[in-house]
Amino acid sequence: MTDLNIKNLSYVDNFKHSVVGNFVNFRTRASRSEYWRFTAVTVVIGFVFTLLRFIFGHSFLGSLINLLSFAYTCVMFLPSLGIAVRRLHDINKSGWFWLIIFVPIIGLVYVIYLLAKPGDVGDNQYGSPTSYEVITAEEAARTGLKETPSESMDQKAMLACICLTVFNIWMSFLAL
Asked: Within 10 Å of residue 7's Cβ, how many Cβ atoms?
């Protein structure tokens, strides 16, 4: 198999690689597309859990879904934190900047701004930017990986993540 650290992976392949192969990496850098592809899959899975909790309410099945959702959140904590720290490193910020998210409203907006900002073009104190190789249709057929998404798809995914997260929070409050 090829070195996945240098490949511009699809949404699902990137998610798998971040969770399995790169989940406790707090030292290097993560590109904007790498971060938002991971986040897109995470947000969709979280949204499905919220939707199911809303549908099944306080029934036994709803309680089971709550338990599965909690387990998923616990499992995803380190990979999510790791990729967010690496994303901040890509813009030459310390991973500790992530804690600004706890400042009500302003902190969340500022962290989203930082995570959406383009990364440093050259080297910074956290290393060199990764030069990702695009996965073409031919390579996808040969390796079993999915083709690399376009930049416009990544931008749409970033906006969709933000909107789905806001909607997810709203639905969580309705389910209470």
From this structure: 20
Number of H helices, E strands in the chain: 6, 2
pLDDT tens for each residue of 118-129 = 999 999 999 988
Burial of 108 (0-12, 13-18, 19+ CB in 10 A): middle
Do residues 98 and 111 make contact, with C-beta atoms less than 8 angstroms apart?
yes
Q: Is the dihedral of CA 100, 102, 107, 108 positive or negative?
A: positive
Which two three-digit tokens encode residue 64?
A: 């089971």
pLDDT 10s digits, 28-71: 999 999 999 999 999 999 999 988 988 998 899 999 999 999 99
Token pair 């380190």 is found at 78
